[in-house]
Amino acid sequence: MNKEIAFYRPSIDESENEQIQSVLQGNTKSKVEELENEIQDFIGCSHVVSTYNSTAAMHLALSAMNLKRADKVLMSVNSFPNLPEVVRHFDAEPIFVDIELNGLNIDLDKLEEYLENNNSKKLRAVIVTFVAGEIPDLDKLYALKNKYNITIIEDASNSLGAMYNDKLIGNLGADMTVFAMNPSNGKSTVSNAGFIVTNDDDLANEARLLRTHAINSTFDSYGNLDYIYDVVNIGYKYDMTDLDAAFNLAQFYKTNDFIDRRQEIAQLYLKELEGVAHVKLPEFSSDHLFTQFIVKITKNRDGFARALKEQGISTGLTYIPLHLLTYYKQKYKLKITTYGNALNTYSQILSLPMYPSLSDEEVIYICDNIKKVSKEWI
Fold it and tell me: Which residue ranges make up each domain of the chain?
């Protein structure tokens, strides 16, 4: 009998219910502030600005740096669509950069080449995604930031708790880092949360102002405005509710446990899939968070995925290169061969189920079916 194994499902226990019940029972202490303070203490940064999801956080981050029409923002062509999307909402231009030959992150050599050959005041920022929790060479990235005087925003939405040189991501050399509590890129069925993390006072203050309609006033513990208020800019409604904060506070307290469990699952995958025909296991750093577990299928990846789906196993693609998506392909008249590394990698990558509530039994079931499919593969 086939199992049904989702690509991602949340890991929830009684602790989430307890946090939510404390809000419903009239606890007037702000769960939003509590969550922000906990993350600030955890990372060791100066400011945490929460939003209701990571896309709102990224949009708010660009607003805080006053991105304008016709400005340019560099990013990997191997990014989730929310990144160029928020740039386009400013009528600014996303500029795509290819990925590493043997990796999934932005090619920093190609990034430097672009920066060196395109000196323009309109070139405002670089957004760097940590795909699946893999950390790029941040020493090199921060050196480029200083050399070319460009704003660096880290898209660490799937990398809360990640380390680089024994220091936590979010308190290093970027101007802003964006995190999320939900590592799935799909539609959340429970709760989302996004955070801007920064040591820059001005960026943090601007983000907080714009987060709630740019209202220059105070709110009480129930979210009510003070008697007199003013609006000093064009803002948004991006603040998080206490109910969302309560749920995500419980999730946050499990951060290290979630990381440990994903690393256990990854080791089981690596052991079971070693030497399996048509399945290539990439090399992973010791600090990898494994927010996704990505393999390469060297022959007919799509057919392989369909065969697994017939056995109840859902898989995903992390990510479809942006220049292959209809809007960006047509908007910028991009050829599919423009980004060769991303195209070649995309033709083979397959993301397997990876989340803390995935049991060892389910992982073995997935691996057994991968072995079965690989033996029958033509």
Answer: 14-252, 255-376
